[in-house]
Amino acid sequence: DTKIINAGAPYADVQTLKNDFNYWWNFTQSNEEVNGGGYNSDWPENSLDALFLAAGAFQWRPIEDTLRLVIHCTDDTFAEKGQSLSGIPVQHTYDEVVAALQAKQVRVFVFADADATGGQNNDLDVSPGFFTPYQGKTPIPDATDGGAFNINLVNAGQLSLSAAINDSVEATLCEPYVPQ
User: Fold this and answer.
1) Which of 45-54 are b and which e, b meaning 16 or more Cβ less than 10 Å from the residue's Cβ?
2) Residue 94 to residues 41, 78, 79, 84, 86: CA-CA distances in angstroms?
3) Of residues 20 and 30, which shows the higher confidence score?
C-alpha cells in the first residue's frame, strides 16, 4: 500500500522525474494497490505508513544545508497500526509517524479535505490529524513545522497547488525547525 520511488534518492534529471510522475499519475487512475493485491476498496488512506516511509527511506541530505519537506495529498482520513486497508495491515501508529518525522526534521505540508466531505458517502469529517487534533494529539503539519491546505479549494480552482507549494518552501527555507 506504500512504495518508495527511485530508491528514495534525488532524481538525476528532470525527465526521469517527469516520467515517474506520469507513470504514477496514470497508475492512480486505476485505483489498484501499489504492491499488487488488487483493487483499493476502502476509503481511508494509508497516509501514516507513507509518511513513515518518507521519513526513513528518503536519502535525505545533511540537515545543516537541506530543507526536508514532504508534500502529502489525500482526500480522506487514515488508519493506524492494528487496522487493515484493502487487506493490507497498517504498520505504524500516529505517534510513531510523528516521532519519525520529527527525528529527521521533516516538515509535512498536506493538501487534504478540510470540509467534512470524505469517506464513501462524502459525509465524514476527515480533518483530524491534518487540520484538527487527532485523538487529542497535535495535527501532523503542526507537529512537523509544516502546514495544511484544503484540497477542495485546489479542485475548485480557488487555490493554486504550485503557488501553495512554492510559498511553503519560501516561508520555511533557512528557518529553524520548530515542531509543536
Assistant:
1) bbbbbbbbbb
2) 22, 9, 9, 15, 19
3) 20
Reported as half-sphere exposure (CB side, CA atoms, 13 A), residue 75 has a value of 13
DSSP 79-99: --TT-EETTEE----HHHHHH
CA 175 – CA 167 distance, rounded (Å): 13
| Element housing 110 (H / E) | strand 107-112
Average pLDDT over residues 72-82: 87
pTM higher than the cut 0.85 = yes
Chain Cα centroid distance, residue 164: 15
Alpha carbon 5 to its chain centroid, in Å, reads 14
| Sheet with 147-150, side-by-side order of all strands | 69-73, 107-112, 147-150
Identify the residue whose cell numbers are 499488487.
Answer: 36
**Which helix (DSSP H) or strand (DSSP E) does residue 69 occupy?**
strand 69-73
Q: What single letter denotes the amino acid at residue 58?
A: F
Q: What is the pLDDT of residues 99-141, one digit of tens each?
A: 999 999 999 999 998 877 776 677 778 889 999 999 999 999 9
